Amino acid sequence: MIKMLVCDFDGTINGGPSLGVDQFSAYLDTQPELHFIIATGRTLPSIKEGLTTHNYPKPRCIISDIGTRINYDYDLIADERWQHQLQTRWNKSAIQTALQDITFLGECNPSHQGDYKITFEGQLDHKQYSTIATALEQHSIDVDITYSHDWFLDITPKGINKASAIHYIMEKYNLAAEEICVAGDSANDTSMLTMPGINAILVANHYNEVAHLSGLNHVYTSNASHAEGVLEGLIYWQNNAVEKMVK
Ligand SMILES: [Mg+2]
């Protein structure tokens, strides 16, 4: 039985027609036992604002800043334990120093920066990406670098991503991977879409950067886009779970 649905926001449940969001929300209303969770690269203020733009279901938990922040319930209580463990793995000024001579780094919009996330905006080619990775390595800075939507370059503490945050929540609520469904559209979803045992949904409008995941057994690629595609995938995995129980 699927007990938790974890959705990326931009390009996954957001970005399509509002009718699709309405259908998605109406279906979740019929599933009171299913926990709905957002996992986004956005900062918390940005996702809170984003969720007001359509009739989105209210999430029980928001994983924001690509996994570096977890907040629960409707009043969005921060998970202090999660935040605390990131402090020892993060030195923002050292990262800034390591990258100070790189001229092609894009804009660092203040509204996209997190306590444990640095985001640059702008298109990068493979060589430029490698130059950034090398500069960080040369300064012995152990971080994760994610380039997604062919625009956002996110630097986060090593090993902290949407998947590690979901794993933490799974342990907290005592859930198994097969009880969870995750949905995404771009490279910053790769960690969660490839979690062992998970039921994954790739919406039809996914970016080319994750197209290779559609060949995986545990990934359902929807025919529909955005929220409608998530709904299609969720129903697929729910039916699949029922079939497994019957067998
Ligand atoms: Mg996305």
TrEMBL record:
InterPro entries to which the protein is assigned, alphabetical: HAD-like_sf, HAD-SF_hydro_IIB, HAD_sf, SPP-like_dom, Sucrose_Phosphatase
In its keyword annotation, does this UniProt entry include Cell membrane? no
Extract the GO molecular function terms from the UniProt entry.
magnesium ion binding; phosphatase activity
The protein's matches in Pfam families, at most eight in alphabetical order, are given as: S6PP (PF05116)
Organism domain of life: Bacteria
Where in this chain does the record put each Sucrose phosphatase-like domain?
3-238
Alphabetized UniProt keyword annotations: Hydrolase
NCBIfam families, from UniProt? HAD-SF-IIB
- The entry's protein name is Sucrose-phosphate synthase
